[in-house]
Design brief:
The complex is a heterotrimer of chains A (85), B (412) and C (463). Chain A is 18% helix and 21% strand. Chain A is built from 2 helices and 5 strands, in the order E-H-E-E-E-H-E. Chain A is an alpha+beta fold and 85 residues long. The longest helix of chain A is centred in the middle third of the chain and has 10 residues. In chain A, the strands form 2 sheets. Chain A has a 3-stranded antiparallel β-sheet with strand order 4-1-5, covered by helices on one side. Chain B is an alpha+beta fold. Chain B has 16 helices and 12 strands. Chain B has a 5-stranded mixed β-sheet, with helices on one face. Chain B has a 3-stranded antiparallel β-sheet with strand order 4-11-10. A two-stranded antiparallel ribbon of chain B has the order 6-7. The radius of gyration of chain B is 21 Å and the shape is globular. Chain C is of the alpha/beta class and 463 residues long. Chain C has 3 domains: 196 residues, 3-Layer(bba) Sandwich (FAD/NAD(P)-binding domain); 130 residues, FAD/NAD(P)-binding domain (3-Layer(bba) Sandwich), CATH 3.50.50; 106 residues, FAD/NAD-linked reductase, C-terminal dimerisation domain (Enolase-like, domain 1). Chain C is built from 8 helices and 30 strands. Classes of the chains: A alpha+beta (85), B alpha+beta (412), C alpha/beta (463). Chains A and C meet through strand 1 and strand 3 of A and strand 2, strand 3, strand 6, helix 7 and strand 24 of C.
């Protein structure tokens, strides 16, 4: 699992991502981009090609592995994990 | 006689390494020699002009007396085929590009390029399998040329066996883009006109056939599709097909060849790529910065006076945007003359930017990524036989004519 | 105090608390770590989930192309924080430097960042708001619930409010072939943010895609059936609309109530802060340990006459968060101002809408490229003889040029020739923004006040 967000202020609709990883990215009309923010099934290799090809470097991808303590709260609410000092 | 900087850049003697000249050029970001074009060489200024609506791609907007080494060629085209969308402004450009994109990419054909991955790999494998004597390989003849040409033929639906015919026309037309001041422009214009006419007639025959018997190739779909923008006229279709055929192979040949040349000059990177094929992805982006196949855009015109870095570029002037120089601008890229695929934030100008950015970019990227990864994996201990290699004449579409390499063997 | 080592100590072992665990909070936390903050970091969020991205909630999710509970934001670096999620902050003691939580806990801080954002404005009639089938759209739960209801194939969806979110919802409904009615109090959709000239294009897009668009009307009442399900809405023009799903899309309210009585300069228009994101107290004196970022902050912007802007924009949240985090860890001379030119996007009915600057400040508009009729154009907004904003419909690649015009306060109307100038682009038109005293759903940019100490604000509810 990898999490994705696209900075659509930067995006100028060059569609490189939608060509290279159509499982994750799709053009909606000529310029608007839709994407799956947590693409399970798409090969990571295609995502990497898509992110690298973005001419405005607008595709943000997890730099740290999801899971573990970091997000934490999804299944175990974090209250009580650590009392304030 | 001392050559002007522009002459030096166009001079074939400097083809192998124009980068020191570009560095010189960047000292005056907007460089103008008497009667010459306004030459822009710094990153931010080039990028700005690529997004500037006061800049036209339509040569018809040139002031009538404006000096343009390509001027003799421009009107010649009109008598044969109308300009392709590369040389048009919106709204015509946008409409034609949209229609051309319909059978090629998203939103209407999102799986076209992705669906070619297996085919691309097979062609690469076949070509490397077919390399004979590993002691003397001409990478251009044996790999970098046949690969993208085979791909563009399959994509467009052009019989591969016609390659010998259109190769000559395509070469002539590509050469006509070279703003060589010493060339016989009138003679060359005539040659280009003939080549364009013959290519047009050839494509017309092919399109006629596809209309009767359409396949799933792009020509068939362009000839028969009825999108929101209606059908293309026959003339539009011919110009577009010619543009795709020429642009679709000249540039990628150079990108792949420049890529292998660069890797052979950086054996550490080549070594890493062999161990880690995924590195091909950032390598290709860095390559598009470091050795872009289109060095400069010589055909833009100003529709208004433009103030840039203290220079007023008058309305009706010709602009040259030296992409390859912008890519080496130290204001934008740290240590720009270093080839470094680990560079963060590579936003190169190698494929242009703005509405005219490279139409075939995703295909060129995939082709080059696959090509370099496979060459790195399969060629055993490859080395350059000539460094620098012999270059083509062309200063715009710059790349080696031959790339002679040797290796110890071909891995399976 | 600069140079006395206190900053180094803060970086080494200080306590930074971020209230608001969404886009701005997360990006601020990442920036703090990137800048070398090694102390303790506590992230407090009212929702029980990790930070997620909201733009997909009104687009991909409603189209069924993504799932509402799977829009978590990518992590650009490890933040190594203590997460206090699902436990909203309820109070602030500035003197004791403590944040109170709903569960009674108190979290002490040396530096506090407030990024509590906004929430959807609810339907004002409480009983009607409780009817089954009445939704708003702000959180992932909202989006999940609405998406589920759309999946079930409602007979008609009524969207109250034709702003960006409302229009995106209507677009998604039409793409799924669901009948939809949009009511907008103004003369056209998007009129508050982009004016009447562009609003007319938005209206045309809606109607061409089969939206039953009703402008110049308000919904006066929602009606339920015997089992408490919404069944119809009464409109101010005397007509009624039968709908089994109603989406209330009337803009947002800033989450500042928890700061009431704290002494911080916070109110319905957000938290007033300086250009470096330091919050003002109610005396108009800037604090040195409380910062604000994102939708809840309002900052003076030098490009726009130092007016205090609060911007509900994705990009603004990101850049303000970075500035706030940087400034928290910097000596005063190293601090940076938040000066980014506002920009936002929306996609609806297959058209990408992008904007830079502040169109709603404009009085005139020039269609510099393309054509309104084609729904493909670039419009430039002018205010007092200068370029103040621009909007692009499927023309995004030209926008950087116009942003530069805004940044350089270029004269309006621009006099130069451009590609694709049509007859309609020969002269500027009245941009036709509604009278601000007649609120629509409310634009996403709110202008207010001229000085830090300006507390005499007037607040007009949209409905």
């Amino acid at each position: 699992m990898v999490r994705i967000a696209v900075d659509l202020n930067r995006c100028q609709g060059y569609a490189q991502c939608a060509f290279l990883a159509p499982e994750i990215f799709a053009m909606h009309g000529d310029e608007a981009l839709l994407y799956d923010p947590e693409a399970d099934d798409a090969p990571r290799e295609k995502l990497d090609r898509a992110a690298a090809a973005c001419p405005v470097q607008a595709i943000l991808v997890d730099a740290v592995e999801p899971g573990g303590l970091e997000p934490g709260a999804a299944d175990a609410p974090a209250e009580g994990v650590s009392r304030a000092r | 006689m001392t050559q002007t900087l522009l002459h030096q850049i166009l001079d074939y003697a400097n083809r192998a390494d124009p980068y020191p000249l570009y560095k010189e050029l960047r000292k005056t970001p907007v460089h103008h020699e008497a009667d010459g074009p306004y030459v822009v060489s710094t990153y931010y200024e080039i990028r700005g002009l690529l997004h500037d609506p006061r800049v036209s791609s339509d040569a018809r907007n040139l002031a009538s007396n404006a000096a343009d080494p390509l001027a003799s060629e421009a009107p010649a085209q009109e008598s044969t085929l109308p300009p392709g969308f590369l040389k048009l402004d919106p709204p015509e450009h946008d409409r034609l590009r949209r229609m051309t994109n319909r059978p090629f990419g998203p939103p209407h054909s999102p799986h076209r390029v992705d669906g070619m991955r297996g085919e691309l790999r097979d062609i690469v494998t076949g070509l490397i399998d077919g390399i004979g004597d590993p002691e003397r390989i001409d990478l251009v003849e044996q790999f970098s040329y046949p690969f993208p040409v085979t791909v563009i033929c399959r994509l467009l639906g052009i019989p591969r066996e016609d390659e010998a015919r259109f190769h000559v026309w395509a070469d002539t037309l590509a050469a006509s883009l070279d703003p060589d001041p010493d060339a016989d422009t009138v003679g060359r214009g005539k040659e280009a006109q003939d080549a364009r006419m013959q290519l047009g007639m050839y494509l017309a025959g092919l399109i006629e056939e596809r209309r009767k018997n359409p396949g799933d190739d792009m020509l068939s779909q362009l000839a028969t599709a009825q999108g929101d923008d209606g059908p293309m006229t026959t003339m539009e279709l011919l110009s577009t097909a010619a543009l795709l055929l020429i642009a679709g192979h000249e540039t990628t040949v150079n990108l792949i060849t420049n890529g292998m040349l660069t890797l052979l000059r950086h054996p550490d990177v080549l070594q890493r790529l062999r161990a880690e094929p995924r590195l091909a992805v950032p390598i290709v982006e860095e390559l598009l910065r470091y050795e872009p196949p289109v060095q400069l855009v010589p055909q833009r015109t100003t529709l208004a006076d433009i103030e840039l870095r203290g220079v007023t570029i008058p309305k009706g002037s010709t602009l040259w945007l030296v992409l390859a120089s912008g890519n080496r601008d130290p204001q934008r890229f740290e240590d720009p003359d270093r080839f470094d695929p680990d560079r963060p934030d590579i936003q190169h100008l190698g494929l242009g930017s703005g509405i005219h950015s490279c139409f075939g970019a995703p295909l060129a990227r995939l082709e080059t990524q696959f090509a370099l990864a496979e060459l790195a994996r399969r060629l055993e201990n490859p080395r350059l036989l000539d460094d620098p290699p012999p270059y083509r004449q062309n200063a715009v579409l710059r790349g080696p004519r031959h790339l002679h390499i040797a290796c110890d063997g071909i891995r399976p | 105090m600069p140079g006395d080592g206190s900053l180094e100590q803060l970086k080494r072992e200080g306590r930074i608390v971020v209230v608001g665990a969404s886009l701005a909070g997360l990006r601020a936390a990442e920036t703090l770590r990137e800048k070398g903050f090694a102390g303790s970091l506590t992230m407090i969020g009212d929702e029980p989930c990790e930070p997620y991205d909201r733009p997909p909630l009104s687009k991909q999710v409603l189209l069924g192309r993504a799932s509402a509970d799977r829009t978590a934001l990518p992590r650009l670096r490890s933040v190594d924080a203590t997460w206090r999620l699902g436990s909203p902050a309820t109070g602030l003691d500035m003197a004791a430097r403590r944040v109170r939580l709903a569960d009674g806990d108190e979290v002490p801080y040396d530096r506090l960042l407030i990024a509590t954002g906004v929430r959807a404005r609810r339907w004002p009639n409480e009983a009607e708001a409780e009817l089954d089938g009445v939704f708003s759209l702000r959180t992932r739960d909202d989006s999940a619930a609405l998406a589920r209801r759309l999946d079930a194939g409602p007979k008609r969806v009524l969207v109250i409010g034709g702003g960006f979110t409302g229009s995106e919802i209507a677009s998604a409904c039409r793409e799924r072939d669901l009948p939809v009615t949009v009511t907008e109090r103004g003369a056209a959709p998007l009129v508050g943010a982009l004016g009447g000239v562009v609003g007319a294009v938005a209206a045309e897009m809606q109607r061409e895609h089969g939206v039953d668009l009703r402008t110049g009307v308000m919904v006066t009442a929602l009606e339920g059936d015997a089992s408490g399900r919404v069944r119809a809405a009464q409109l101010s023009d005397g007509t009624s609309v039968e709908a089994d799903v109603v989406v209330v899309s009337l803009g947002a309210l800033r989450n500042t109530e928890w700061l009431a009585g704290s002494g911080l300069g916070a109110g319905p228009r957000g938290i007033a802060c300086d250009a470096g994101c330091r919050a003002f107290d109610i005396r108009g004196i800037v604090t040195d340990d409380v910062y604000a970022a994102g939708d809840v902050a309002r900052c003076p912007h030098p490009l726009f006459g130092y007016q205090f802007l609060s911007l509900e924009h994705w990009g603004n949240a990101v850049s303000q968060a970075r500035i706030a985090a940087h400034n928290m860890l910097s000596e005063s001379t190293d601090r940076l101002p938040h000066m980014e030119v506002p920009s936002f996007w929306s996609s609806q009915f297959g058209v990408n809408i992008k904007s830079v600057g502040i169109p709603s400040m404009g009085t005139e508009i020039l269609i510099a490229q393309g054509s309104l009729t084609d729904h493909r154009f670039l419009g430039v907004y002018g205010y007092q003889g200068r370029v103040i904003g621009a909007v692009a419909f499927d023309h995004g690649r030209w926008l950087p040029f116009y942003q530069e015009l805004i940044e350089s306060t270029a004269p309006f109307p621009p006099t130069f020739a451009t590609v694709d100038r049509r007859p309609e682009g020969q002269r500027p038109l009245d941009a036709d923004f509604p009278d601000p005293s007649v609120p629509t759903h409310g634009p996403t940019v709110t202008l207010s006040g001229y000085s830090p100490a300006d507390r005499r604000m007037t607040f007009t509810p949209a409905h």
